[in-house]
Amino acid sequence: MFGANFSDLKGSFPTNRFNANRIETLNYKAIQQQIEFTFGTVISVFDNFRVIPKFVHRTVNQDINSNTTMIIYDSVDAGFIRGREKIRSRDTSGFVGFGMEYDLTPNLSLYFDSLLLSNVLFISSGKYTYSKTAEGYLTSNGSIGVSNRFDDSTGTFKISGNRFLLGVSLKASDSIRVFLSAERDTIYTNISAPFGTNLLLVALLSSSGSSLTSDTINKTIIENIMYTQRQKYEATTLILGVSKDLDI
């Protein structure tokens, strides 16, 4: 048995952050694409029951973009800043899976599918990039300035996880089926070797002065502390589709 699958998941999620001297509004838009190639075999245990051991080569691509608006205020300083963030990640790994099919009637089947073991044959070795630009106006002690900030990060990561799917399929013809299923996908990521850079340019309008600062060492240290912890991603999807069998 050979199969190929492409999925494209899109979503947006606005969020707000507050503290004693900051209000931040963010609007994230995410795209996750998965490309899978499946190699396996179908074993008939009974006339109406089949098991399907398989190997899956899986590529996961993810893009996250956000627009941010931030207001900063305290007894001395105030500011209005707008920015954009972009995160891109790519990874490929091998999975061992197991599926089952049970015919309730000659035309109606119940099926289960899973990916159980990750990093088989193809070991995960992903890369990610992060970039952020922000510009705005700042006031401090009667001075007004224009700020521009640039942040960039790169690193590697490994993924692992599992996936479970349960569904029903209706046989419309000898080779065409209509199916409805629910899928739960769990991905764990472990980031390693993050490296970050930043650049802050502030131009004072009141005195025609400017300053340029950068702190790559501290940014890299902070990212190693914050982002190297294991992260968990979960997605639940309801799928309605049509499949066609090809006799090869």
Describe this structure in words.
With 248 residues, the protein is mostly beta strands. The protein has one domain. The protein is 5% helix and 79% strand. It is built from one helix and eleven strands; from the N terminus they run ββββββββββαβ. Strands 1, 2, 3, 4, 5, 6, 7, 8, 9, 10 and 11 form an eleven-stranded antiparallel β-sheet that branches. Strand 1 and strand 2 form a beta hairpin.
What structural keywords apply?
1 helix, eleven-stranded antiparallel sheet, mainly beta, 5% helix, elongated, 248 residues
Low-pLDDT sequence parts:
none
What is the overall pLDDT average? 88
* Shape type: elongated
Q: Give the count of helical stretches.
A: 1
Structural class: mainly beta
Instruction: Outline the biggest β-sheet.
Output: 11 strands, antiparallel
Number of domains: 1
End-to-end CA span: 9 Å
Helices and strands, in order, run as EEEEEEEEEEHE
Radius of gyration: 25 Å
Q: Helical content, roughly?
A: under 10%
Strand fraction equals over 45%
Task: Give me the count of strands.
Answer: 11
Characterize this entry briefly.
With 248 residues, the chain is mainly beta. The protein has one helix at residues 216-227, and strands at 2-19, 22-40, 43-46, 49-73, 77-103, 108-118, 126-140, 143-171, 176-204, 210-213, 231-244. The mean pLDDT is 88.
